[in-house]
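Exercise 7.
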Amino acid sequence: MAMVPWPVLLFLLLLPAGCARVPGRQVGDQVAPMVAEHELPESALLDVSIRVFDPGTLPDDPDERVGLSMDIREAEARFFPVHLKYTMQRTGYWGVVRVVPDDDPGAEVLVRGRIEYSDGESCALHIEAVDARNVVWFSKTYAETVEHPASERTEPARHDLFQDLFTTIANDLASHRGRLDAAEVREIREVARLRFAAAMAPDAFSGYLAADADGRIRLVRLPARDDPMLARVSAIRVRDGMLVDAINGYYDGYYRDLWEPYTNWRIFRGRELDTMRRLQRQALTRQILGIASIVGAIAIGVAGDSDTRARTSTLRDVMVMGGAAAVYSGYQKSRESEINRDAIEELGSSFSSEAEPLVMEVEGQTVRLTGSAEQQYSRWRQLLRRIYARETGLAGPAPAGPPDQPADVHRADSP
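Solution. The predicted structure, written as tokens, is:
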């Protein structure tokens, strides 16, 4: 059987390995933000709720998973929406922009995100934007790769390593907002108000809205301006905004605390990935050249006659020993690569998030909400429904699934 010449084999083995494929279309470089040319009136502004992102899953390929962890993904799932919020706030196109732990039934515009890929050098986010009418503005995947993270300028709340990605998302949101006329803006705001009311008391308010075959929610009729039940719901919505503001204070604090270690982790990981790729190339080259030396020595011994073998005995010994040394050197380089990988994984495992208890004042009572931000948000909504039911005598919606742990409630003047 004919053997492949070892130079050809060497060439094939040294071909570069494929890189991880990042989903989505790469955004442009130095993307200019869309900014309102003049201050918009309050009636033209829509409030935006950005839901905490879905962290997604880690790559299936073990090599691509190195240095990554779900702890980091969970941190990014909170970090990314906060930075998007800051990016959107600077455009002047929006009213209040908040991060929420779950879908907000009263959101005028709701932004959902899923982390499709994130490894420190590349990031891909799937973003969906939908307004209160259940009209999807867009649903697409954005991606950006930063070749040299250490050289990128960063500034908390203003310039992330993947700022072009966030600016592109914010620009798309502003562009879709610009296509709405004044009547559509009013409709969105009215539908959002009544959707919140229906979430508090569906029996009283669900008849004002209807969904068509496509799922679009439309106004059927408007309640009277002096409707007392709607006035109570409006007051409850103000309280809800207070809680969401408090939760945003938590997210903002978490973002600030995370900024330095997370940015440093991405820079460090970028350097480590560069080092790993370089060491792997060096290790592969040394191992292949070493194996080639051993194979060459064996070939001389097999192909030559007795005189040739005798004359080249020392040469063959040197080639075998040199080849073995090259193989071992390559192994040592691989060990260095593994050590760098371990360093990345150790750094990545340091991420964690704990929500501090939130204390709210409601009708002369102190409400203490504990648990994660998501649990606090859920318990608060349950409390608001109970308040509305007590004030109106109407039953609120039945809770889905098992009952949640109730909030701790104390009188404001109690010790």
